[in-house]
Amino acid sequence: MAERTGSGDAASGDAASGRIAVVGLSGGARQLSAAAQRAIESAALLIGATRHLDRVGRRPPATESPEAESGTASPVAEPAEAPVSPEAGPVGVQAEAEPADAYAPPATPAKPVESHARAWPEPSAYAPPEPSAYAPPEAEPADIHADPADAHTHASPEDPADAHTQASPEAPVEAPPAPPPAETAIPTGSSRSAQRVIVLGADRLEAGTTLELPGVDLAGALDAIGYETGPVCVLASGDPGFFGIVRPLIERFGAEALDVHPAPSSVSLAFARLGLAWDDAVVVSAHGRPLASAARAILAHPKVAVLTSPDATPQQLGRALMDLGVDPRRVAVCSHLGEPDEVVRETDLVGLGGRPWEPLSVVVLLASGAEVSSEAVLAWGLTDEGFAHRGGMLTRAEVRAVALGKLALPAQGVLWDVGASSGSVAVECARLRPGLQVIAVEERPDDAARVEANALAHRTSVEVVQGTAPAALAGLPDPDRAFVGGGGLPVLDAVLARLRPGGQVVATYAALDRAAAAVERLGQLVQIGVARGRRLPDGGVRLAAENPIFVVWGPQH
Question: With bands split at pLDDT 50, 70 and 90, how would you rate the model's confidence at 236?
């Protein structure tokens, strides 16, 4: 078994055994650790967005600057030696001790955080600048442009990254300074003049999601890393392991190839600005994901942080929450965190949905009393009285509790409740796993209306499809989990035909012959017999048996 010992910031750097260093940058941490500095200095290939490269003194290739067009800038700018900032960072993160000649990014004057409720100028429509067309030079791969930022930092709509902190507009590129003195030379085996630089232009670096902006996409950046035989350093925003570049890097190169040097994440900065703990918060990213997932999480949890995006803006989030009938929440929209133009504005749901906001923000939503952590209670098999139903047509609480356990609900994915009747199973699934897309299919219009009412009463998000299965299943996304409460064996067969690999189906039957046929398809069966306690006139208790129900589940994997 591989083992790493010692400090990653030890002078020898022996603990940093990965070929690919991932360095997180944040306005909340003004200084880099010695290990992170060494990774930047010694890399044969340095990858980062324009603002990342500028922050560490590696300005992008001259083809990206006005000076390059006039022929006054060199192909790859030398880094400027800047004094170490005395600031410890707005979130109290202490930088590690460094040699006197170590590089530290330039200090940026801090700006007081704005924090107020609905005290802004008249709203104006947000219109991001049009991205300019860009064609990378053919001669050198060092002039390729892409963007592997991490999880929500953002410089401008033309250069968004993934960490929800925003850098101030870039100043014109100046002529490179004189080379550093000999005593601050680059470690043996690398030189600044030989270092290749790729400037990234993609918006976010979660696997499978990109924004159409000038530059190389994530796949191109990963290919460049794969071709490089020397050490590589990838600059990201905040904590690269938090909805960031670490995941696709692990999927491509393996965890053993990486050395990660994180900075404070955008979410930690947001809660720090509000003076709140966040170990009990639910964090949802709307980058490359349906906004409905974030809305469902907010319905079910009192303390939520949502990482918004140009495709799922804070304003759209606010409107979606009002459409769902979410209770009043305290709302804070945190933008450009850690940067000079940082803004934290407090509002409510009406204010959130009523005006444009910076698209790449962290939106914190707090229910009443959620500022102080409270012990969460996990419960399922809710009482039958908590659901509107038609003459007892619902899956009883005890049977429902077993069915939920056999479903083994995942955190994300699609769940069908076919033959939903009251929708009690669908509602409990949505309540236990807000990240699931829960779809209830019910033939009767009156029962379909009851499903919607029950979902609203339990503050859950359930999509209701009124129609007869299996025909009504045709246009639905394939399920990861399915509960079949009606429709017989033809419906079960139709569900199994659509089930995703590794999925699970649970079906309930009152008739033994149907249960026996279902177990041939699914593999496992149990009978549940419930006898409820009933009070006698003299105060005693008797047991009243109910009809047994057969629960069948599978397939076995």
Answer: confident
